[in-house]
Amino acid sequence: MAEIDKYAALPEHRGKYVDDLVAAAVLVAREHGIRWFVTLLEPLFCRAIKILYHPPMTPLGPKTFYKGDDVIPVVMDVRDVVAHPEKYNIKLRPVLAAVGDAC
User: Cα angle vertex 59, ends 53, 65, to 5°?
Assistant: First the structure.
């Protein structure tokens, strides 16, 4: 299990960088054998992640205020996501090229 403290992107950067953020999390999970991520997601960002990627994700509690914004605590089971990223619309190729296949 690993924690992503607060997974967020400013609205003006969401379309451009969300794929890279998600792909990076998948690569970290793969590299370190992580099965579960626990994180805090802004409600709109949480909805976008659900719609775009459909990850196995379970809310852990109600919306709460944290670090200047409302967030929803969630746990994600990333085992299948790591094994089959294409099934979840996750593109790893651009991230691998950006880090020079270091992962």
Answer: 110
Helices 43-53, 14-32: inter-axial angle, 10-degree rounding = 70
**Residue 13: per-residue pLDDT:** 73
DSSP 8-state code for residue 56: -
* Contact assessment for residue 76 and residue 101, using Cβ atoms and an 8 Å cutoff: no
User: How do residues 5-55 score in pLDDT, each as one tens digit?
Assistant: 876 667 777 677 788 888 889 999 999 999 999 999 989 889 989 999 999
In this structure, the number of other CB atoms found within 10 A of the CB of residue 73 comes to 16
Q: Which CATH number fits domain 2-98: 3.40.30.120, 1.10.260.40, 3.40.630.30, 3.40.50.300?
A: 3.40.630.30
**Interior angle at CA 7, CA 85 and CA 14, nearest 5:** 75
Q: How far apart are the first and last CA of the chain?
A: 19
State the Cα torsion 51-54-55-58 to the nearest 10°: 70
